Amino acid sequence: MTALDLFKALSDETRLRSLLLIKAEQELCVCELMQALEESQPKVSRHLAQLRKAGLLLDKRQGQWVFYRINPSLPIWALKVVEETFLANGELIESNLTRLKQMGDRPDRVKSCCD
Prior knowledge:
By secondary structure, the protein is of the alpha+beta class. It has helices at about 5-10, 15-25, 30-35, 40-55, 75-90, 90-100, 110-115, and strands spanning about 30, 55-60, 65-70. The chain has a 3-stranded antiparallel beta sheet with strand order 1-3-2.
């Protein structure tokens, strides 16, 4: 991964918010991100696919659902950028986290949208 790859991937607000939400929660599925971002499934899935293609996210299929997490094999400098961005920009995803929390806590939240 190059710096250009990372910053291109994060140059879109939906992708940046998605990554920061995943950072906050460790793992999220498309339906959780749809609720948090108030976006359609095709839009969320498209942006997650771009983050996965850039190497920022890993996905795990569970039945018909796909769960995303930050790729722990990212270069250390990229992980630090993600961490610092997360720590310095909590207000960017504050309302998104509130909407996500309205779904309840995990694992109940996952049962309600991913079963």
